[in-house]
């Protein structure tokens, strides 16, 4: 009988204790009660912008159902993306390497691992891996169903 009670009550008591601990942690009471509690880890902001890197206002697509596409773009040393535009906002975060982006008459910008940007939307640009190793960037395209993430564009005329 005692063995039966121990097998049936012990898991119940353990479950109740675990649940109570979970409630304390998620309610914030744990931090107030425990002097050794670690503070919650805040999110590290990477980017907050209402304009693209070249000063265009942030505009979301209005046609079609919203669609977000995330991709990791990898370029070998010296490799280029080719001149292109985006029809919707693109957030980029350089994971590895160095990326030079030529914005024509708006200049060239250099992005390194850890840099985030709100990419140019309707303005032709070309990215080039400027480092000795691979360059990887996480690109998050904030578009709509049926909308391409990018479109080829002609290089701007040289002055």
Q: In words, what does this structure look like?
A:
- The chain starts with a helix and ends in a 7-residue tail after the last strand.
- With 159 residues, the protein is α+β, with helices and mostly antiparallel strands.
- A 4-stranded antiparallel β-sheet has the order 1-8-3-6, with no helix packed on it. A 3-stranded antiparallel β-sheet has the order 5-4-7, with no helix packed on it.
- Helices cover 19% and strands 30% of the residues.
| Unreliable residue stretches | 1-35
Largest pleated sheet: 4 strands, antiparallel
CATH topology heading of the largest domain: Jelly Rolls
Rounded Rg: 25 Å
How large is the count of helical segments? 2
Amino- and carboxy-terminal Cα gap = 93 Å
CATH classification class of the largest domain: Mainly Beta
* Strands, count: 9
Residue share in helix: 10-25%
When the domains are counted, the total is: 2
Give the percentage of residues in beta strands.
25-35%
**Structural class by secondary-structure content:** alpha+beta
Output the CATH homologous superfamily of the largest domain: Jelly Rolls
